[in-house]
Amino acid sequence: MDYTLHQLRVFREIAKTKSVTKAAQNLHLSQPAVSIQLRKLQDQFEIPLTEVIGRQIYITDFGEEVAETCDRILEEVYTLKHRTLAYRGFLTGQLKVSIVSTAKYVMPYFLNAFFSEHEGIDIRMDVTNKATVLQNLADNEVDFALVSVLPQDMDIERVELMPNKLFLVGNKARVEQLTQADDQLLQTSLLIYREQGSATRQAMENFIKSRELPTSKRMELTSNEAVKQAVLAGLGYSVLPLIGLKNEIADGSLRVVPFAGLPIVTSWNLIWLRNKKFSPAAAAFLEHIREKKEDIIQQHFRWFEDFKLEL
Questions:
Q1: How far apart are CA 220 and CA 77, in angstroms?
Q2: Out of 1.10.150.110, 1.10.3110.10, 1.10.10.10, 1.10.540.10, which CATH number does the structure's domain 5-87 have?
């Protein structure tokens, strides 16, 4: 046998997600790279680890046993790594964070300096939908969550990180043709929404409902990135968080449309369960956030703070 730790990590993720595509996303690898590692691991066993029926991959009984062994091997490797670092005087452990999809434009900047200072700490960040983020927190599977809308039925504590501003946006060609942005714009144009349960979707619907704005044509997509691409293609307009539009605003491919009542302003909040017993890694991260928050905002989000809509 000549399998590698990388192959074991890849197969464990495939067994967990039952999908090469999802495993690739979770591991930040290309789908072909994951398929190659799976094939190299399979070549070392005479018994199949997986089988494909239709377009669905299934883990065989033998594959499930190999996956369990992968868990044990990788856990021992993880333990050995952190024991070594602990002997050298480093803070060790794992920091577990769950964030909504738009927060991927925010959270990495608050993690970067902390991760650089503490090489003995591993970070697991799950980027998913709002419902899953809150379920992860409720089940105590993560230390922290990052959301823009606070849950009403959970006993939590929080640190407010920075504002979240949502504007009406369209592509360059559409906005340049506008003579004015009024209620008729929303009634005659295709509006592109996030899926049900999204905080962005909720903010957009609340804004339209509260102002009794007339609408007609609509499209629903399952991520802010997909909505942004649809707007870039000229399909219609959407209300999107400014934080995810930096490059498109800078190069002019997307334009913010002046519209009465916008932007919608909420806040990005780092939340955790009240009375949560923090690991040393989680406690150190919370201290880092409280001490360095303003410096991080000034260093990485000055453009966001300084953004002014030209009417």
A1: 44
A2: 1.10.10.10
Maximum CA extent, the chain: 70
CATH of domain 163-266: 3.40.190.10
Tokens 């704005």 found at: 213
d(CA 129, CA 140): 17
C-alpha 195/C-alpha 50 separation (Å) is 33
What's CA 299's distance to the chain center, in Å? 21
Q: What is the DSSP letter of 142?
A: -
* Token pair of 189 as six digits: 């144009």
pLDDT, tens digit (0-9, with 9 covering 90-100), for 102-147: 999 999 999 998 988 887 788 889 988 899 999 999 999 999 999 9
Contact yes or no for 246/303 (Cβ under 8 A): yes
Here the tokens at position 306 are 């300084």
- Single pTM value for the model: 0.73
Q: What is the pLDDT of residues 167-179, one digit of tens each?
A: 999 999 999 888 7
